[in-house]
Amino acid sequence: MKTAVVTGGGRGIGASIVKRLDADGVQVAIFDLKSTDDLSSQLKNPSKVISVDVSSPENVSCAIKEVVNEWGRLDILINNAGITKDCLAIRMSDADWQKVLDINLSGAFYCAREALKVMMKQREGVIINISSVIGMRGNMGQANYAAAKGGLIALTKTLAKEMAERNIRVNAIAPGFIDTEMTKRLPITVKDEILKRIPLKRFGRIDEVAELVNFLTGAEYITGQVITIDGGLFI
Ligand SMILES: NC(=O)c1ccc[n+]([C@@H]2O[C@H](COP(=O)([O-])OP(=O)(O)OC[C@H]3O[C@@H](n4cnc5c(N)ncnc54)[C@H](O)[C@@H]3O)[C@@H](O)[C@H]2O)c1
Q1: Residue 87, SS3?
Q2: Would residue 235 count as lying in a domain?
Q3: What is the span of the domain harbouring residue 19?
Q4: pLDDT for 210-222, tens place per residue?
């Protein structure tokens, strides 16, 4: 049985990815700050919920070891945990800049570094980083988030180059606006403006991102790519 780690798997896009991988017969370890026992009880395969702050390299290292000690292997890592702390750059605090970089970018690096040690021995593995269209286009009020998500794309391409000869594929997904707690926080006027700019005239659904993740886990000739899923927003 294949095994996966999904960071930020407790809710939103991450929870949908957990369910989709489980439906495909994968055992999933959910790494999240919050308890997600409810989600775990809905899964058909054995699963694990581990309390992990991905911005702590020690936390990440212990959690990956726990998964591998118990399940013996790690086939898939989905770096999905992410936060926003929006503010115009000139007013952004050092703390808000750093926190978003620590979780969205360094967190993904720590998880990938630990997972790759296992995947290299297996000579097989898949990493998918959940970036954002903002990481390619920038966005007012999101200097920290855009820098982190752009960095994640550069990290994806670098790891793909470093790991291809070990049969490990690394790709990124760049969602546009997906209906989740993260986008629920947007003011209604901002939402309306965004909707006007999306050719498909709706926000994306979490299961649509999860379906793309599932596709990429099996796409054996795709590596180092960024796949956009945004309803045509940035055509
Ligand atoms: N929702 C969107 O429109 C959208 C668009 C583009 C990209 N994304 C990206 O998709 C990912 C998921 O977004 P979402 O909308 O589902 O967000 P969400 O806020 O609904 O869920 C994020 C999850 O990450 C967890 N998390 C936060 N900090 C963590 C940490 N330090 N360690 C471990 N877990 C942590 C949270 O507890 C939560 O369960 C994020 O990386 C986000 O940037 C979302």
Answers
A1: strand
A2: no
A3: 3-229
A4: 999 999 999 999 9
